[in-house]
Design a protein that fits this description.
By secondary structure, this protein is α+β, with helices and mostly antiparallel strands. The chain contains three helices and five strands; from the N terminus they run ββααβββα. The model has no long low-confidence stretch (mean pLDDT 85).
């Protein structure tokens, strides 16, 4: 579903049918330690860009709303984990670095 700022995100949910005005981020709703989510966070959220670049099904994202350096504003902080190799993913756009090597090996075997 598209966020209020026009980016496609599988975690954003908006229901505007029959007079409803429900908006939520289902990724942040799973984290009880996060600050409260509000729609303006979608403007600077890195999750839609990460999902667009890295479509690895083994990548599991964790997000939370944090205050910025001086506490005047809030932002979404995202961490990732590879479910296949049980590794913390430091570069979420590239993934863990192992899953795609395995996929390439399977592709090369299939071509032979």
């Amino acid at each position: 579903m598209k966020t209020p700022y026009g980016k496609e995100c599988k975690f954003y949910y908006g229901d505007y049918a029959r007079g409803h005005a429900t908006q939520e981020c289902r990724l942040l709703a799973n984290n009880s330690e996060s600050e409260k989510w509000f729609p303006a966070l979608c403007q600077t959220c890195p999750v839609p860009d990460i999902l667009r670049v890295n479509q690895c099904p083994q990548l599991h994202l964790y997000a939370r709303v944090d205050k910025t350096l001086f506490g005047l504003s809030k932002k979404v902080v995202v961490e990732g984990f590879c479910e296949r190799y049980f590794l913390e993913t430091h570069d979420l756009r590239a993934g863990c670095g192992h899953c795609h090597e395995l996929d390439l090996e399977e592709f090369e075997i299939a071509d032979s």
